[in-house]
Amino acid sequence: MFNCLIWMFVLLCSCIADENSIRDADIFPSSPEIERGSTLKLFCVLGKRYTPHRNASHIIWKLNHELVPWENYDIVNETVSSITIHNFTYSKAHVKCFTKYLGKEQLLVHTEVKTGFPPETPGNISCIYYFDAKLTCTWTSGRETHLMTNYTLYRKMMTEGGVTLPNTVRSCQNKTESCSFVYPDTPFSSSFCFQVKAENVLGEASSDCVPIPMEKIEKFEPPEILSVKKITGIKQLLTVTWKMPEKIIPSQDLICQVQYRNLYSNSSEIVTVPQNSAEKTGSCNLTGLWDSTEYSVAIQCRSLESIFWSEWSKEKTASTEEEAPSEKVDLWRVIESSHSAGSRSVYLMWKPLNSFPPSGRILGYKIQYFPENHPGLQMTNNSTDEKIILLLNEEAYNISITAYNSAGNSPEAILRIPSTGEKTSQIIETVRTFTTNEEVVVEWIASEPEVTEYVVEWYEELETDPFSRSWQYVSNSTNWKTNKKNFKPFICYNISVYPVYGYKVAAPYSVQTYVQEKKPSEGPVADTGIPGKNEVTIKWKEISKDKRNGFISNYTIFYKPEDGKELNETVNSDVLQYRLKSLQANTQYTVYIMASNEAGGTSGEPKTFKTLKFNKEDIIFIALPVGVSMLFLLGLWITCILKKHAFKKVCWPDIPNPAESIAVEWPLDTSMNNSFLKGVTPEAKTIDCEDISVLEHCFPEESQEGSLLMNCENHVSECTDINTKGMINGDKQILYNEENEVAKCFSPSMPYIITDQDIRSQMHSALIPAKEIHAVEMLEDDLCESQQTSIKNEEDDNEEVLKLEDFSEKALFNPYLKNSVKTREFLISENLPEHSKNEPKSQSAVLPPFQQNVAGQSYITLDMFGLATAH
């Protein structure tokens, strides 16, 4: 019967869709909600738009993008298709209806299916009643339905027999598990019962009507504290007074609780105080409290019948009666170095009293100080802060501080400030620090065990404010522990331990530590400078202290040639430059530096550099020869400029042309060998002893060379025996004899003459200086006439010698004389023709090495005498 009704409903909907053509397709039921695990049945109806080209056979179904199997399909008629899915367990699912035509899918319509459960019977009904204000009830619904569920709260008035009185039922609805009745629908009655009904699309469930007396669920507003006071002269006591709220059920006995706690403790205590409902106020005395301690007080109340306390009232604070402080302040100091004027700043700081409970509220502090050697110069300052700066001179001072309140002063805390030049002993030998999971531990060793009190001071390394330092006194121990939270991670701390004996402070021992490290925030920046050929010096700066995050243990230099393998060098933390050696010449390198601590390392920015092709030594090796050569060439060029005439004479001497000489006439034919001396006029044959000229020598035959050398040597030996003392003394007669002998030595009968080295200085006046010879000629002119006869006799002998020589065929060069023609000196006589005087008067008389014999002797050719007779 039910299935028939569904079919009729579907057909009716299909007809309506066809007739009105409102929609192209539709799905039924729309947004279904079913019980989880039941069967889901849906219908898809085609609109008029898709007929007659499509029908229900073209409809396909998808569940959450998955195709529904064909066995779940059912064709109702040409326009209606349905699916049936058993045991549907999805909490929420999307079902879509498509049409598939010519291989294409087109979405027609889709819906969302939800599953859940019918509601269970509500339970645990409880209510709170605010007199003449509001009645609120709550309950539990059992299991989660996963579907929209509505709740209805019923309030019924019952008779003693449990019968509901008519016209007394009130209800409120909500979608949550709570509902309230508000004034004026909140009458007071002790015969109310409460019932809750839950319902959704799958069903409903109702609870029993539970009777709840109103006086048992009453809860009123918290009372208001009027005052919390101390009583003068009575210590350790506070009086609390409060006011009750107005909306309370009348004629009910009340009870209140007073809760109090001191501000130095997290725990509290409670005092119960009965309260008469007829009284609008209440009071209570709190005893056994601490002296001069501040307390916080709160109050709550309820009726004796009710099960609900009111909320706690707002807290109020007050302090008990004070007493004079019983403990001295915790005093410390930081001493700055002396200023230029001889003054110094002393930073005094102290902590609140350590006594517990404290004696009272501190009103201020009194600071007294005086020079140790002048107690009468005491000065006093008052401060409400826990720090002060004193400007002292270089003397030693005693400083005392007392705290005071309304009841009196605390004991004095005294410290001695040493003088500027005072040296304190080093009692602590070593200090070490380490960190555990929760604590920082400082341990030290003291050389004097009688010292039993120490001060541990710590502060951040970069902290410059002396008042930011922390300190703590340690007694009868050589170690100190504190919570790790007192130190910041990754920050360097300076920790100092001071021995204290009496009120004097000895020299400290200081160390640095990190509670926790991490790798540096940045790496060092490399500076390559000017690289060399095979090395470069890498420099870097220390990382700033705020970015080290730990103690730098080492630096690592990484360097890599272009297209090469990366290499590295590690150095200690105190090294800030390093020379990389054995690098490749003319190669580009990339270098960067990593700074490391215990937590890891961080690298700086990479830098590139290129090694040189040549180093300084190579450049010097190349440039030095080039420079020396250029200097040599420059010097040679300057010398050539300055001495060009001398070099010209040495390298390119002027060789006179014998054919142009007026001394002899050179025939062009070979007969000149026999007529060499015939062309000389008799006047020219008259030789002056000093007018000796060098000409081409006659070339003796090789067979005659030995005898000629021996004859020349004999003549030279005779010449060397000439007494030359007359020339030194200026005796003309001796000069005459010497000139006569010289003429004999250089007689034309000799083919050449070897002069001994020992007589060169004597021969120099006869052979070289033309001016001197001319002077002798003038002085001794008449002496030379007597020599004409002997010279003529010698000319006959010379002709005979010349006739024996064959210049054209048998002339052989003496190896000692073959180049003698290239250097000669002409001595021009005044009697020569004028054109002969214009000839160069002197050429170098120094013979080249190849014209000197082994013994260093010079050779003079035969023809020099023939030319000498030209004048």
Describe this structure as you would to a colleague.
The chain is α+β, with helices and mostly antiparallel strands. The chain folds into eight domains: about 1-115, Immunoglobulins (Immunoglobulin-like, Sandwich), CATH 2.60.40.10; about 125-215, Immunoglobulins (Immunoglobulin-like, Sandwich), CATH 2.60.40.10; about 225-320, Immunoglobulin-like, CATH 2.60.40; about 330-415, Immunoglobulins (Immunoglobulin-like, Sandwich); about 430-515, Immunoglobulins (Immunoglobulin-like); about 525-610, Sandwich (Immunoglobulin-like), CATH 2.60.40; about 615-640; about 650-870, no CATH class. It is about 15% helix and about 35% strand. The protein is built from 13 helices and 50 strands. The strands form 13 sheets. The protein has a five-stranded mixed beta sheet with strand order 2-9-8-4-5, with no helix packed on it. Strands 12, 13, 15, 16 and 17 form a five-stranded antiparallel beta sheet that branches. A hairpin with a 5-residue loop joins strand 43 (about 555-560) and strand 44 (about 565-570). The chain starts with a helix and ends with a helix. The model is unreliable at about 1-5, about 15-20, about 665-780 and about 780-870 (pLDDT under 50). Belongs to the type I cytokine receptor family. Type 2 subfamily.
